Amino acid sequence: MAKLTFKTDNCKGCGLCVDACPKGILIIAADKINKKGHHPAECADMEKCIGCASCAMMCPDCIIKVER
Amino acid sequence: MVVFDKPHALIDVPLHYCPGCTHGIIHRLVAEVIDELGIEGNTIGIAPVGCSVMAYNYFNCDMIEAAHGRAPAVATGVKRADPEHNIVFTYQGDGDLASIGMAETVHAAARNENITVIFINNAIYGMTGGQMAPTSLPGQVTQTSPYGRDVNHCGYPIKVCEMLSKLDGPEYLERVTVDNVKHIRAAKKAIKKAFQNQLDGKGFSLVEVISSCPTNWGMTPKKALEWIESDMIPYYPLGVYKDRTAEKEAE
Prior knowledge:
The structure holds two protein chains of two kinds. Chain A is of the alpha+beta class. Chain A has helices spanning 16-20, 54-58; strands spanning 3-6, 26-28, 41-43, 64-67.
């Protein structure tokens, strides 16, 4: 099973990972705020993640670690 | 098994760029290439003036901050001081490379200086607040062209790769973009080739990366990437503009 780890405090909530995800399981968490004051990205359904790393490739701030 | 993680050549600090700015992606690609080639200890980067002025905070290799536009000149000196050991790259935006630093760029290319140039083209002056750049598209609205860039008054954009390809000097020129995963993979391949050319002593290699500036374009990060696809790529076609080694092999 694939696993995503987000460095949430470095996230700027740009949403590029959300658009890149082929499974559509990433979201911008509207109910959370990180240190920088952004709504961070997170994975809504880790079970469905295939570990393709598209999100990590698109992330401008390199906050996503992908394990498979 | 780790499939993807931050490369070692990129320091683990938050980047100062705006949300959705693709500078971060290009920083990472350069760092990944430095890791893969195992040249971190010998690499010296030259930072420009522009949004990426603080690139020296992010790369784990030695960095020098050049005067505005003078990165290729500084890189020439660093490379010639110890051509056997120093791997030199410059990281420049369009205001730095195509505007104030045009002379240094053209002459470094004409001399076929054995350096690697990463040129970020986002068609606007980002750091100073979104003024018209030499690479701004015809009709593009910026702070200093509020009715759109009028080519009769402001002239036409400079296509750097096309222009340099007419010189006999440069070894390798390619234009890439980072608007989707497929293009990011191609961009990394081009950057790796640009570094490999330097290791092989082939000469001047420039990779132009079409980049986005969501803040100054006045778009969301997603919309900005779509604008690259719909407006920038038709004006700045992607591809290899010069590859002397391949040309020789073809003959």
